[in-house]
């Protein structure tokens, strides 16, 4: 199967609506791909806290509507990155959306680990509670977002719920690029999954986002990586999903787990 990460530029030069139209057109251009991925909070901007109130939306709001149509036109599964979701009670969540090639919503995930150390997302948003995996034509997708990468227990829970491929949209700061590179490879290697990590580029709210979106295989090998933190680009790789079972058999570390089994 062929997957592409659209490393979208997110800065203050465009409105959410303008960026939505541009993202939809980039997704429509990916005909022939099986899975297309967008970054975290690309409509409002992950670091544009002042925009969240105005640009928040419901699960079936304007981003979902535009992305459903774009998935259908591309004929691909679309992980539409995440939106600032506002639920009926008015609570905000950082919520990832997944559509199938018919444009049907097939799952959403509210970010469990909120970033900010008592500021920003950690105070402005509610935290998700559910570990989410979604069966697709090419395997089971697990969902995580950005800061979640620092919490291996979530990735182990995704593995235990059947994940073979984990998608991580992000707006990771360029200043911590080496953490991003290390954690994306580590999470792929330790769970023996394909890991698709799509980070925004561009600068807003005083933050240069790190780009370097990457597709990593279950051996920990980077199959494709964006070249820079500064430039919008699309990263594509062909994934042989049979590699997941092959590598888990060839190097059966998951079978050798001791502590998890002792606790259950
Ligand atoms: O963990 C980090 O260094 C960055 C996390 C982050 O930027 C986020 O979750 O939005």
UniProtKB/TrEMBL annotation:
Name of the protein this chain belongs to: Carbon-nitrogen family hydrolase
Gene3D superfamilies in alphabetical order: Carbon-nitrogen hydrolase
Pfam families with a match to the protein in the record: CN_hydrolase (PF00795)
Ranges in coiled-coil conformation: none
Keywords: Hydrolase
Highest rank taxon of the organism: Bacteria
Any one biological process term the GO annotation gives: proteolysis
InterPro entries: Aspartic_peptidase_AS, C-N_Hydrolase, C-N_Hydrolase_sf, UPF0012_CS
One MF annotation (Gene Ontology) recorded for this entry: aspartic-type endopeptidase activity
Family designation: Belongs to the carbon-nitrogen hydrolase superfamily. NIT1/NIT2 family.
Residue ranges constituting the CN hydrolase domain according to the UniProt record: 1-241
């Amino acid at each position: 199967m062929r997957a592409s990460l659209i490393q979208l530029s997110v800065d203050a030069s465009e409105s959410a609506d303008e960026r939505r139209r541009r993202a939809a057109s980039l997704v429509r251009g990916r005909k022939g791909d099986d899975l297309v991925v967008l970054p975290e909070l690309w409509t409002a901007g992950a670091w544009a806290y002042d925009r969240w109130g105005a640009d928040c939306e419901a699960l079936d709001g304007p981003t979902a509507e535009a992305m459903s149509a774009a998935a259908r036109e591309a004929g691909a599964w679309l992980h539409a990155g995440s939106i600032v979701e506002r639920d009926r009670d008015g609570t905000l969540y950082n919520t990832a959306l997944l559509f199938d090639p018919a444009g049907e919503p097939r799952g959403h995930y509210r970010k469990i680990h909120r970033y900010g150390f008592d500021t920003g997302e950690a105070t402005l948003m509610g935290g998700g509670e559910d570990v989410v995996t979604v069966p697709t034509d090419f395997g089971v997708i697990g969902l995580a977002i950005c800061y979640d990468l620092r919490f291996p227990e979530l990735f182990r829970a995704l593995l235990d719920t059947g994940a073979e491929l984990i998608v991580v949209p992000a707006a990771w700061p360029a200043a911590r690029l080496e953490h991003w590179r290390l954690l994306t490879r580590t999470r792929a290697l330790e769970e023996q999954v394909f890991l698709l990590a799509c980070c925004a580029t561009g600068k807003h709210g005083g933050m240069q986002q790190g780009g370097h979106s990457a597709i990593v295989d279950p051996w920990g090998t980077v199959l494709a990586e964006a070249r820079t933190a500064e430039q919008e680009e699309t990263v594509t790789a062909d994934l042989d999903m049979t590699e997941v079972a092959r590598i888990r058999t060839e190097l059966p570390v998951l079978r050798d787990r001791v502590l998890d089994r002792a606790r259950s």
